[in-house]
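INTERNAL AUDIT FORM
Audit reference: QA-55
Scope: verify that the stored structure record matches its stored sequence.
Auditor: D.O.
Record contents follow.
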Amino acid sequence: MRRVTQDKQGKKTAGVDGVKSLTPKQRLNLAKELKLGRKVAPTRRVWIPKPGTEEKRPLGIPTMYDRALQGLVKIALEPEWEARFEPNSYWFRPGRSYQDTIGAIHNAISKKDKYVLDADIAKCFDRIDHEQLLRKLNTYPT
């Protein structure tokens, strides 16, 4: 079962360059200009509320150029990196959803008793050592 995605509200939010959206012709010109190795523009930082609490979390909004470059890098790296991930890893992976996770857990524990670990990984990705991560993946971002 595939997750139904909603149209993201922040999709047309401007970065530090003030650009909110591009026409089809501007998109074509942007695609022709994309180059790896160019220094990225500063990210616009906004604080958005966390649901059910008064706490806020930071959100970085890149420029349209940097968003396009991120997409290009994702398309280039994802096939290799997906092949390296564990087959029993589900969240934030293409074509996988929480329903897939629940189904896999059900299949694994329906035969005999098992333990399920539910961990709160709040702010985990803020603290990941990126050099260590790249060494683990045995590749370079470029």
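Auditor finding: record pair retrieved intact. The first helix runs from residue 24 to 33.
Action required: none
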